Amino acid sequence: MERRDFLKKCIMVIAGASVPLSALTLVDPKKVLAANPSIQWAFLVDTTKCVGCGFCVKACKTENDIPLNANVTRTWVERYVYTKDDRRYVDSPKGALDGYTDARIDLGKGEFKEIDKDNVGKAFFVPKLCNHCASPACTQVCPVGATYKADNGVVLVDRKWCIGCGYCIMACPYAARFFHPVLKVADKCTFCYHRLSKGLDSACVNACPFGARKMGNIHDKNDPITQIIMNERVGVLKDEFGTKPQAFYIGLAQEVR
Amino acid sequence: MVGQIAQHAMEVHGEAWTIKELFTLPNEEIYWSIQIVMYPFMTGLVAGAFVLSSLYHVFGIEKLKEIARFSLVFSFALLPVAMMPLLLHLQQPFRGIHVMMTPHFTSAIAAFGFVFSTYGCIVATELWLVYRKYFVQTALELKAMKNRGTIDNLRCLLFAALTLGAWDISDEAVEKDHKACKIMAGIGIPVACFLHGYAGFIFGSVKANALWMTPLMPVIFICSAVVSGVALCILCYVVVQEIRKFMARRKIARWAKDVNAPTVDQLEGAKHEEVMIASNYLMYFMIAALTLEILDLIFRGYTQVKSWDILREVIMERDFTKIFVMQYGLGNILPFLIMVLPGRTVRRTTIATILVLFGVFMMRYNVVIGGQAFSLSFAGFMDYELPIIPHNIETYKEGLLGALTVAATPFVLFYFINKVMPAFLKEEEPTH
Question: Quick check: A210 pLDDT over 80?
Fold first, then answer.
């Protein structure tokens, strides 16, 4: 056989063999599991049940070592007040750490607004936390990959790797992130990952006396929380950013942003 | 660990300079402060200075020869300073190197280190090609010198090392240098533009921020970068030439005592022509930058998407002075008028460049701080108060003094780099 023919045949054999061989890819069990994991955590907030007691905020801060007197928080509760003369007021003093014990609205800069009780049209509370988005903007922008999405859908921060640039804080449309005042790294709600992995409820869910906060596995069709998300009318916050939030809200008003 | 200190009041990052008004979300502060204003400003100066030097090296605009060489050296002095504000604003500065070690390429910042290093290599290579002949000559002179002192010995070592073993300074070799230099400058222009357009992308791609998110951002940043870089080069060139004139008159410096030293009139004549041509380019880029910025503003006002209500209040009311008076008025229109009116002089141009630099700085300020001036709730505002007298390391770094430190560093660096690579080297042959 001439060298020329030999080379030609070699190429033919390689080309022919590569087609069926390409069907055989190495299977990484972790990847398969991640593509179809059995657990995907989702949060359900029933705003109609929230009374603004702030127990969730306190429980969260205590559980997760966020200094109580620092003005940052992993979860917070907002108060919305609509007056009959068509004005809207919103506040969240200290993220509602101490609950809403004052009827006046906090306008910032130490100013408060008294609202006549008879003038109140409607008023409600909205608890907020990290939405653990399905396509999070924060993990995309981290320059060192210190924040990432775990296989079970929880978005986490590696405190040993975060460089503290603040890009994730800027990228989050929900202001769920902040710099930890002691550790000087980006910090956020973890759905109490350490509790979940022990089979416990997260601290805020546990602390809520009215059942306004619940968590469930959205991949389990029989999970009662999944049932509510599937069967009832729920909304998410700021879906226009395309982040696909995994915190669902019952009784969401369009003014809540 | 944190629990023990949890009970007393604790300041969080950003609280020292943020004033919140109406409804802002609990975690919102002005996290990106003056250092992040300095970052695109300094990067812009680097890129702009390089573009000015390339006008001569690539397009062969002979009249810019002297200012081009000066710009190249100056852009090298500015280079390390573009990194400085980033490091200063990090909460974990010692981990900054992670960006190079474990880059996460979906992030717009991750590739910055690489783009920046590539650019640094290009500038360094170009400088080496321009100065190789000088290095060889100086090293040979020093070698030939008898009775060298310690300093001369050190200089001899330094220059010998800087030649990198390429001692050939025949005409062909130098001609090759010039060709290579042209190629490097040619590669350098897109890289410089990329470096800065990329800084614009870092802001423009933040979808959560209604003011930043626009695809025009990188282009606006490139244009204003060239504007600021050219303006700074003109300004520094004029100032340095004035110092040289002073030295020539008084014969202070070593070079001024030389028989062939340029006279005061020669210096003045060269300066006038170079400044006039450079300022023409300055005006072209100013028109481009301003057009794009106004286009962005008009587009937002015309389309009136959801965020416009709050943006309008920030742009037209709260930041009106900063945007329309300081940025557009003092920083764009006034210097443009100063330069465009007939009978332009070097002095008038110099005043204009100072205003232009101020205008570009205000543009960076209005983008970075202005983008954080409103709450994500669209129902509240945040005001930035620049810390002037620092009371801890954080208020120093992210305050007036930190910004001044960053602004002053390139001049200090330039002083030292100029000792090794004199920006005003007199060359005998007319080529290159």
Answer: yes
Question: Nearest chain B Cα to A185, which residue?
Answer: B91
In chain A, what residues touch B18 (CB-CB under 8 Å)? none
Does any CB of chain A come closer than 8 Å to the CB of residue B253?
A: no
Cross-chain Cβ contact A73/B380 below 8 Å: no
Residue range(s) defining the domain that contains residue A55: 41-133+188-250
Residue whose pair of structure tokens reads 């110099």 in the numeric block: B350
ipTM, 2 decimals?
0.86
Nearest Cα residue to B33 out of B375, B401, B389, B384: B384
Q: In this structure, what DSSP letter does residue B304 have?
A: -
Number of CB atoms found within 10 A of residue B250's CB: 9
Task: Determine the pLDDT at residue A32.
Answer: 65
Report B:301-320 residues touching A (Cβ under 8 A).
Answer: 306
Question: Which residues have CB under 8 Å from B331's CB, separation 6+?
Answer: B355, B356, B358, B359, B360, B361, B362, B363
B109 close contact with A: CB closer than 8 A:
yes
**Residue given tokens 């975690």 in the structure block:** B27
Scanning B23-52 for CB atoms below 8 A from A yields 23-29, 31-32
Among the partner-chain residues B15, B102, B205, the one whose CB lies closest to the CB of A71 is: B15
The DSSP bridge partners found for residue B384 are B18
How large is the average pLDDT for residues B224-246? 87
Work out the pLDDT band at B428, boundaries 50, 70, 90.
very low
CB A102 within 8 A of CB A124: no
pLDDT level of residue A166 (50, 70, 90 thresholds): very high
Contact A70 B12 (CB under 8 A): yes
Query: Cβ B23–A145 below 8 Å, yes or no?
Result: no
For residue B108, give both structure tokens: 């717009």
* CB < 8 Å to A145, chain B: 102, 104
Residue A31 falls inside a structural domain: no
Q: How many structural domains compose chain A?
A: 1
The pLDDT-based confidence of B6 (bands split at 50, 70, 90) is very low
**Which of B27, B97, B205, B393 to mutate to test binding with chain A, by most A CBs within 10 Å of its CB?**
B27
Q: Distance (Å) from the C-alpha of residue B299 to the closest C-alpha of chain A? A: 20
pLDDT in tens, B42-58: 988 888 888 888 888 88
- Angstrom distances, CA of residue B335 to CA of A183, B202, B219, B330, B343: 47, 29, 22, 7, 14
Predicted confidence at residue B254, as pLDDT, reads 67
> Which residue of A lies nearest to B394 if distances are taken between CA atoms?
A184
Contact B379, B220 (CB under 8 A): no
Task: Tell me the chain A residues in contact with residue B99 when contact means C-beta distances shorter than 8 Å.
Answer: 143-144, 163
CA angle A100, A101, A104 (to 5 degrees): 80
Query: A97 lies in a domain?
Result: yes
Give me the CATH number covering residue A127: 3.30.70.20
Structural domains for chain B? 28-419 (1.20.1630.10)
Among all residues of chain B, which has the CA nearest to that of A178?
B27
Chain-chain contact of A179 with B26 (C-beta, under 8 angstroms): no
Mean pLDDT of B188-201: 86
Q: Chain B contacts of A167, Cβ < 8 Å?
A: 107-109, 202
Q: pLDDT grade, residue A35 (50/70/90)?
A: low
Distance CA A129, CA B25 (A): 11
B376 pLDDT above the threshold of 90: yes
